[in-house]
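INFO batch 0412 | record 1 of 1 | parsing
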Amino acid sequence: MQNNPRDQKKLYEQYYGYCLKIVFRYLYHYDKAVDVVNDAFVKIFGKLNSFYCNQPENIEPMFLGWIRTIMINTAIDRLRKDNFLPEIGIINENVWVEDKGQASDQSLLYKELILEIKKLPPVYRAVFNMYVIDGFTHQEIASQLKIAIGTSKSNLFKAREILQKAIKRNENEIKICRM
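INFO prediction complete | emitting tokens
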């Protein structure tokens, strides 16, 4: 709150990975995602005085939610700026943080699903992430992306359809490999 650079660096380092994972759901290109995270942290530091928590025992979950909202909004702003153009790039392997409690096959399935989501057209991907992962309503998505509610619903339907086909295709490939 006092704009202490040392404290800002500590906050940045503590939540950087969390923020990068959020932004990667919206932006495919690693360099763009890093830029968005950095831009969002500038916003966070500028708006830190506006963060308020009336429940000190829940301060971290509320703070993480506040940060997540800023990250999502900054990523959407970048998508809009780029006119939702498809991105070309690869996901750098060092951004995957393995959950040690997760079985290796679950970890592999998670990575494959994320890669399939990344293949979605940018507008479908944004709507899918906002609705399924981040819990936005179609009204909120329409407002954020400046599209009609019906368009939001249609984009979600099409994204789910594409992902279901990809999952079935992957299941068939696994069956063939096991034969």
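INFO post-check: The CA atoms of residues 26 and 76 lie 7 Å apart.
INFO record closed
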